[in-house]
Amino acid sequence: MKAKRSNTKISPHGGAVPILQKIKEFGIPQVIRGCLGKRKEQSRYGYEDVFIAWVLTALCGGTRLDHITKLKKKLNIIPGLKLPSHDTLGRVMKQVGSETITAKSITKKREGKIVFTEYTDNIKLNRMLVKATKRMGALVEGRSYTMDIDATFIPTECRGAIRKVNEQGKIDYSKIGFNPMVCVIGDLPVFISMRNGDAGSRFQILECLQNCLGLLDESKIRVGRVISDAAGYNKEVLEMLDGRGIKFNIRFPYKINMLDFRKKLGECNSWRKTEIATANFRWNCEIADIPYKMFDLPVERRVSKTWRVVAVRIPMDETLKKINIEEWERRKVVKEKLKNLAKKKVLKELGRPYDDTNWKKIDGYEYKFFITNDFKKTSEEIVLEYNKRGNAERKFSFMKNDFGWRLPPFMNLNENAVFLIAAALANNIFRGVVTLFKKKLPWLRLNGRLRDFQYIFIDVACAFIDKTYMFYNTDIEYENLM
User: What is the pTM of this model?
Assistant: First the structure.
């Protein structure tokens, strides 16, 4: 048998064809152009060409800007597709970066210290992100969404990452990088505020929430609930969310100087036994609700609302021995058995255990607290809702590993903010496309990883012959998706 040469151009990423068609069908180029405007007339590529090029690069497995060079060769069968060089891609992304702002604040330590923190919100690009996500059908009007807000650290030693010296005169290498504050709805980042690596977890959180909710309001996307860690425990944040009619669920950061709350905790007599199952543990605990006011400001004629603090407590060994000797003895026997089995290496050796540092030791008990303005849900429902917040951390892992967040390509903070938003756009389009195609391909997983999607959907041989796309060696009827 002789091998025959063929001049037919074949792309190994045929699954990108129906995705590109849907991007155009849903008007994503028009959204990008409407938010960012047009480039100069002599420009060969518009903003829409650049951002769609990066979306396709990411969906085909690219995580660095220069990966678009190989993609150009593999997708050149698609008529009318304009893919710029990686130099143009980077240059245009830099052009749409917004101004970097330097904020001045004073630390709350005994000796107040002035701290300068750089950040940028890039409202135009975040508006594009929200509108494009809605156009793809990933966000819809008339539905109430739960939004998580959290910061994630991205280590990088690019020159734009600030290297600050600590009190000992040494550089703190653990804070060299960026620390973006991200608002997430389900699997979808909807707002990204880029910040220094040493930015505090509470830095500009009120402004970040206001900007995000404002952009969502513009697109008529309703947020009914907001979940945050202790960084969200801020009087202005709670009042702002409550004033908008949004329910919040925030970890309450108990401190030893909260004497009023400590007194109410000691006076609480409504404890009841319950069991709460988490991803890592099963808590046999007691639970109660405690009404709490943050503080009032009579001089400013401001009166704080009374919120609801849900408290969970588990007795420490000494306390358990006093209140339930039988249970204490049972646990002691179980611990001894496990210890002996571990010595014999009978038990399966687990990896690094999850270290939950949020338990507070108070008067012989370990406590967890959650503050909310929702007085209808049960205490257990509030705790379980907050525990689901771990999904937000999982989404950050997806963005870092699947969409290149761990590899910021530029030198400056505001330029890398553009890259993070472009990667978030690729993720949101990916989620919208999967939701759309699942109607005809039921086996597609809505929560699947990008690599799985590439393997089963994108990586298929495709040729463009006589103005028709031909797909080879696949069971998927791509023609019905287009």
Answer: 0.90
